[in-house]
Amino acid sequence: MGDDQDDKPLTTWEMLHSILAAAFGVQSGKNRSRDFSRGKPRQFIVLGLICTALFVLLLAGIVQLALYLAGV
């Protein structure tokens, strides 16, 4: 990984990996510095909001399923 890799913007997969790792609290310092040097804040914010919304919808679905199975 030379200088060419340092100039390339992050791919969507790299950003998603960073967001999920940070959400679980296992983000490495190397990846965090890569994100700050190559990533764009707007992309991280949008992808983070999408992941958060999906997480909330998943939790709501699990609660609804549990309530349905409990007969409530």
Fold and architecture overview:
The protein is built from four helices and no strands. It is mainly α. Helix 2 packs across helix 4. The radius of gyration is 17 Å and the shape is elongated.
Element-level helix/strand string: HHHH
Number of beta-strand segments: 0
Content-based structural category: mainly alpha
Oligomer: single chain
Question: Quick summary of this structure?
Answer:
With 72 residues, this protein is mostly helical. Helix content is 81%, strand content 0%.
Give structural attributes.
elongated; mainly alpha
Give a topology summary.
Blueprint: H1 3-7, H2 12-24, H3 29-38, H4 41-70
Helix pairs in contact: 2-4
